[in-house]
Design goal:
CATH topology of the largest domain: Enolase-like, domain 1
CATH architecture of the largest domain: 2-Layer Sandwich
Shape: elongated
CATH class of the largest domain: Alpha Beta
Distance between the termini: 34 Å
Number of strands: 7
Mean pLDDT: 79
CATH superfamily of the largest domain: Heat-inducible transcription repressor hrca homolog, domain 3
Strand content: 5-15%
Radius of gyration: 28 Å
Order of helices and strands: HHHEEHHHEEEEHHHEH
Length: 271
Protein backbone atom coordinates (compact mmCIF):
# COMPACT_ATOMS: atom_id res chain seq x y z
CA UNK A 1 0.00 0.00 0.00
CA UNK A 2 1.38 3.41 -0.97
CA UNK A 3 0.57 6.13 1.54
CA UNK A 4 2.71 8.99 0.27
CA UNK A 5 5.21 8.69 3.13
CA UNK A 6 7.16 5.74 4.57
CA UNK A 7 5.11 3.42 6.78
CA UNK A 8 6.23 0.17 8.30
CA UNK A 9 4.48 -3.06 7.43
CA UNK A 10 2.87 -3.06 10.88
CA UNK A 11 1.60 0.49 10.42
CA UNK A 12 0.06 -0.42 7.08
CA UNK A 13 -1.71 -3.45 8.53
CA UNK A 14 -3.01 -1.55 11.54
CA UNK A 15 -4.21 1.34 9.39
CA UNK A 16 -6.09 -1.00 7.07
CA UNK A 17 -7.68 -2.70 10.08
CA UNK A 18 -8.80 0.63 11.56
CA UNK A 19 -10.31 1.75 8.25
CA UNK A 20 -12.19 -1.51 7.70
CA UNK A 21 -13.50 -1.51 11.26
CA UNK A 22 -14.71 2.08 11.14
CA UNK A 23 -16.35 1.69 7.73
CA UNK A 24 -18.26 -1.40 8.89
CA UNK A 25 -19.24 -0.24 12.39
CA UNK A 26 -19.09 3.58 12.35
CA UNK A 27 -17.42 3.27 15.76
CA UNK A 28 -13.85 4.21 16.76
CA UNK A 29 -11.49 1.23 16.63
CA UNK A 30 -9.73 0.17 19.82
CA UNK A 31 -6.49 -1.77 20.01
CA UNK A 32 -8.00 -4.75 21.84
CA UNK A 33 -10.84 -5.10 19.34
CA UNK A 34 -8.39 -4.94 16.43
CA UNK A 35 -6.23 -7.61 18.01
CA UNK A 36 -9.19 -9.98 18.46
CA UNK A 37 -10.73 -9.37 15.06
CA UNK A 38 -7.75 -9.24 12.73
CA UNK A 39 -5.15 -11.38 14.49
CA UNK A 40 -2.33 -9.00 13.64
CA UNK A 41 0.22 -11.13 15.46
CA UNK A 42 1.11 -8.49 18.06
CA UNK A 43 -0.26 -7.53 21.46
CA UNK A 44 -2.95 -4.88 22.00
CA UNK A 45 -0.27 -2.69 23.61
CA UNK A 46 1.85 -2.84 20.46
CA UNK A 47 -1.20 -2.04 18.32
CA UNK A 48 -1.98 0.90 20.61
CA UNK A 49 1.55 2.28 20.18
CA UNK A 50 1.33 1.83 16.41
CA UNK A 51 -1.97 3.70 16.34
CA UNK A 52 -0.32 6.56 18.24
CA UNK A 53 2.42 6.69 15.60
CA UNK A 54 -0.20 6.78 12.84
CA UNK A 55 -1.99 9.59 14.63
CA UNK A 56 1.22 11.62 14.73
CA UNK A 57 1.57 11.10 10.97
CA UNK A 58 -1.97 12.37 10.37
CA UNK A 59 -3.64 9.09 9.40
CA UNK A 60 -5.72 8.62 12.56
CA UNK A 61 -7.51 10.80 15.06
CA UNK A 62 -9.81 10.17 18.02
CA UNK A 63 -13.05 11.86 19.10
CA UNK A 64 -11.96 12.20 22.74
CA UNK A 65 -9.16 11.08 25.01
CA UNK A 66 -10.46 7.65 26.00
CA UNK A 67 -11.89 6.66 22.62
CA UNK A 68 -10.41 4.45 19.94
CA UNK A 69 -9.10 5.90 16.71
CA UNK A 70 -10.90 6.81 13.51
CA UNK A 71 -9.38 7.35 10.04
CA UNK A 72 -8.70 10.83 8.74
CA UNK A 73 -9.28 12.07 5.19
CA UNK A 74 -5.60 11.40 4.56
CA UNK A 75 -6.10 7.74 5.51
CA UNK A 76 -9.14 7.33 3.26
CA UNK A 77 -7.33 8.96 0.36
CA UNK A 78 -4.38 6.63 0.76
CA UNK A 79 -6.65 3.60 1.08
CA UNK A 80 -8.60 4.46 -2.09
CA UNK A 81 -5.40 5.12 -4.03
CA UNK A 82 -4.10 1.72 -2.98
CA UNK A 83 -7.27 -0.03 -4.13
CA UNK A 84 -7.31 1.70 -7.50
CA UNK A 85 -3.62 1.00 -8.14
CA UNK A 86 -3.62 -2.59 -6.89
CA UNK A 87 -2.28 -5.08 -9.48
CA UNK A 88 -4.80 -7.29 -11.21
CA UNK A 89 -5.45 -10.75 -9.84
CA UNK A 90 -3.17 -13.10 -11.75
CA UNK A 91 -4.69 -16.31 -10.40
CA UNK A 92 -6.85 -16.69 -13.48
CA UNK A 93 -10.04 -16.78 -11.41
CA UNK A 94 -12.56 -14.09 -12.40
CA UNK A 95 -13.63 -11.66 -9.70
CA UNK A 96 -17.14 -12.79 -8.66
CA UNK A 97 -18.28 -9.19 -8.13
CA UNK A 98 -17.12 -8.16 -11.60
CA UNK A 99 -18.67 -11.27 -13.14
CA UNK A 100 -22.05 -10.63 -11.59
CA UNK A 101 -21.96 -6.94 -12.47
CA UNK A 102 -21.18 -7.78 -16.11
CA UNK A 103 -24.12 -10.18 -16.15
CA UNK A 104 -26.41 -7.51 -14.75
CA UNK A 105 -25.29 -4.97 -17.36
CA UNK A 106 -25.54 -7.45 -20.23
CA UNK A 107 -29.30 -7.67 -19.76
CA UNK A 108 -31.51 -5.05 -21.33
CA UNK A 109 -30.88 -1.87 -23.30
CA UNK A 110 -27.40 -0.77 -24.36
CA UNK A 111 -28.20 2.95 -24.24
CA UNK A 112 -25.75 4.82 -22.03
CA UNK A 113 -28.49 6.23 -19.79
CA UNK A 114 -29.89 2.76 -19.13
CA UNK A 115 -26.45 1.25 -18.59
CA UNK A 116 -25.59 3.91 -16.02
CA UNK A 117 -28.86 3.39 -14.17
CA UNK A 118 -28.42 -0.40 -14.08
CA UNK A 119 -24.77 -0.05 -13.06
CA UNK A 120 -25.61 2.21 -10.12
CA UNK A 121 -28.45 -0.04 -8.97
CA UNK A 122 -26.40 -3.23 -9.36
CA UNK A 123 -23.46 -1.77 -7.46
CA UNK A 124 -25.79 -0.83 -4.64
CA UNK A 125 -27.25 -4.34 -4.43
CA UNK A 126 -23.88 -6.09 -4.64
CA UNK A 127 -22.06 -3.86 -2.15
CA UNK A 128 -24.96 -2.71 0.05
CA UNK A 129 -23.73 0.84 -0.45
CA UNK A 130 -25.08 3.73 -2.48
CA UNK A 131 -24.10 2.92 -6.06
CA UNK A 132 -22.78 5.80 -8.16
CA UNK A 133 -22.18 5.57 -11.91
CA UNK A 134 -20.58 8.28 -14.02
CA UNK A 135 -20.90 8.42 -17.78
CA UNK A 136 -18.40 9.81 -20.27
CA UNK A 137 -18.53 13.35 -21.57
CA UNK A 138 -20.08 13.40 -25.02
CA UNK A 139 -17.02 14.93 -26.65
CA UNK A 140 -15.17 11.70 -25.86
CA UNK A 141 -17.90 9.48 -27.34
CA UNK A 142 -17.38 7.95 -30.79
CA UNK A 143 -19.50 8.94 -33.76
CA UNK A 144 -20.93 5.78 -35.32
CA UNK A 145 -23.14 7.19 -38.04
CA UNK A 146 -24.37 10.49 -39.41
CA UNK A 147 -27.62 11.02 -41.33
CA UNK A 148 -29.00 14.02 -43.21
CA UNK A 149 -32.77 14.56 -43.14
CA UNK A 150 -34.57 17.23 -45.16
CA UNK A 151 -36.90 19.30 -42.97
CA UNK A 152 -37.79 21.95 -45.54
CA UNK A 153 -36.38 23.40 -48.76
CA UNK A 154 -33.72 25.39 -46.91
CA UNK A 155 -33.32 23.41 -43.72
CA UNK A 156 -31.64 20.08 -42.94
CA UNK A 157 -31.44 17.99 -39.80
CA UNK A 158 -28.12 16.30 -39.01
CA UNK A 159 -28.66 13.19 -36.88
CA UNK A 160 -25.59 11.98 -34.99
CA UNK A 161 -25.67 8.38 -33.77
CA UNK A 162 -23.05 7.94 -31.06
CA UNK A 163 -21.66 4.81 -29.47
CA UNK A 164 -23.76 3.65 -26.57
CA UNK A 165 -27.09 4.55 -28.14
CA UNK A 166 -26.82 8.32 -27.65
CA UNK A 167 -28.41 10.52 -30.33
CA UNK A 168 -27.80 14.21 -31.00
CA UNK A 169 -29.29 16.47 -33.66
CA UNK A 170 -28.21 19.72 -35.30
CA UNK A 171 -30.10 21.95 -37.74
CA UNK A 172 -28.38 23.40 -40.82
CA UNK A 173 -29.71 26.30 -42.86
CA UNK A 174 -28.93 26.09 -46.60
CA UNK A 175 -29.58 28.43 -49.51
CA UNK A 176 -31.95 26.79 -51.92
CA UNK A 177 -32.96 23.17 -52.10
CA UNK A 178 -30.35 20.42 -52.11
CA UNK A 179 -31.17 17.51 -54.41
CA UNK A 180 -31.75 14.10 -52.86
CA UNK A 181 -28.80 12.65 -54.77
CA UNK A 182 -26.52 15.37 -53.38
CA UNK A 183 -27.77 14.72 -49.84
CA UNK A 184 -27.01 11.03 -50.20
CA UNK A 185 -23.56 11.77 -51.63
CA UNK A 186 -22.69 14.14 -48.78
CA UNK A 187 -23.91 11.63 -46.20
CA UNK A 188 -21.61 8.98 -47.69
CA UNK A 189 -18.61 11.33 -47.59
CA UNK A 190 -19.33 12.41 -44.02
CA UNK A 191 -19.64 8.84 -42.80
CA UNK A 192 -16.53 7.69 -44.63
CA UNK A 193 -14.39 10.47 -43.20
CA UNK A 194 -15.87 11.07 -39.74
CA UNK A 195 -17.29 7.77 -38.47
CA UNK A 196 -15.13 6.17 -35.81
CA UNK A 197 -13.84 9.50 -34.49
CA UNK A 198 -14.77 11.04 -31.17
CA UNK A 199 -16.78 14.24 -31.32
CA UNK A 200 -13.73 16.08 -30.02
CA UNK A 201 -11.69 14.78 -32.96
CA UNK A 202 -14.48 15.63 -35.40
CA UNK A 203 -14.70 19.21 -34.15
CA UNK A 204 -10.97 19.80 -34.32
CA UNK A 205 -10.35 18.29 -37.76
CA UNK A 206 -13.59 18.32 -39.77
CA UNK A 207 -12.48 21.08 -42.13
CA UNK A 208 -9.24 19.32 -43.01
CA UNK A 209 -10.89 15.92 -43.39
CA UNK A 210 -13.58 17.15 -45.80
CA UNK A 211 -11.41 19.21 -48.13
CA UNK A 212 -10.74 17.81 -51.59
CA UNK A 213 -13.60 15.33 -51.32
CA UNK A 214 -14.08 15.32 -55.10
CA UNK A 215 -17.87 15.61 -54.87
CA UNK A 216 -20.24 16.90 -57.51
CA UNK A 217 -21.41 20.54 -57.69
CA UNK A 218 -24.59 20.05 -55.65
CA UNK A 219 -22.83 18.10 -52.93
CA UNK A 220 -19.92 20.55 -52.82
CA UNK A 221 -22.19 23.39 -51.70
CA UNK A 222 -23.33 21.41 -48.67
CA UNK A 223 -19.87 20.04 -47.92
CA UNK A 224 -18.51 23.59 -47.90
CA UNK A 225 -20.95 24.39 -45.10
CA UNK A 226 -19.49 21.54 -43.06
CA UNK A 227 -15.95 22.65 -43.90
CA UNK A 228 -16.56 26.27 -42.90
CA UNK A 229 -19.02 25.80 -40.04
CA UNK A 230 -18.44 22.19 -38.98
CA UNK A 231 -16.68 23.02 -35.73
CA UNK A 232 -19.53 25.31 -34.64
CA UNK A 233 -22.15 22.78 -35.76
CA UNK A 234 -20.67 20.00 -33.66
CA UNK A 235 -20.13 22.43 -30.80
CA UNK A 236 -23.87 23.13 -30.80
CA UNK A 237 -24.55 19.38 -30.73
CA UNK A 238 -22.70 19.30 -27.41
CA UNK A 239 -24.55 22.26 -25.93
CA UNK A 240 -25.41 21.54 -22.32
CA UNK A 241 -23.13 18.51 -22.28
CA UNK A 242 -22.34 17.54 -18.72
CA UNK A 243 -20.93 14.34 -17.37
CA UNK A 244 -23.84 12.17 -16.27
CA UNK A 245 -23.89 11.04 -12.66
CA UNK A 246 -26.53 8.49 -11.67
CA UNK A 247 -27.27 7.30 -8.14
CA UNK A 248 -28.58 3.88 -7.19
CA UNK A 249 -31.15 3.18 -4.47
CA UNK A 250 -30.54 5.51 -1.48
CA UNK A 251 -32.54 3.10 0.71
CA UNK A 252 -29.46 0.86 1.12
CA UNK A 253 -27.93 3.60 3.28
CA UNK A 254 -30.52 2.83 5.94
CA UNK A 255 -28.64 -0.42 6.60
CA UNK A 256 -25.40 1.39 7.39
CA UNK A 257 -24.49 1.73 11.09
CA UNK A 258 -23.94 5.49 10.95
CA UNK A 259 -27.61 5.96 10.03
CA UNK A 260 -29.03 3.66 12.69
CA UNK A 261 -30.21 6.57 14.82
CA UNK A 262 -33.42 8.44 14.07
CA UNK A 263 -31.69 11.81 13.95
CA UNK A 264 -29.02 10.54 11.55
CA UNK A 265 -31.67 9.11 9.26
CA UNK A 266 -33.63 12.36 9.39
CA UNK A 267 -30.56 14.32 8.27
CA UNK A 268 -29.99 11.82 5.46
CA UNK A 269 -33.55 12.16 4.19
CA UNK A 270 -33.26 15.95 4.04
CA UNK A 271 -30.28 15.82 1.65
Amino acid sequence: MVFGEPLTKRERLVLEAVIQTYVQTAEPAGSRALSRRFGLGVSPATIRNTMSDLEEKGFLTHPHTSAGRVPTDKAYRAYVDQILSAPADRSGSPDPLQTRLKQELAEGSTAIEHILRRAAQSLGVLTQELGVAMGPRLDSVTLERLELVRISAGRLLVVLSLRGGVMRTVFIEVEGEIADAALAEVAVVLNQRLSGLTLREVRSSIGERLRDSGSGPGASVLLNIFVEEGEQLFESALAGDAQSVVLGQPSVLAEQPEFAGVESMRRLLTL
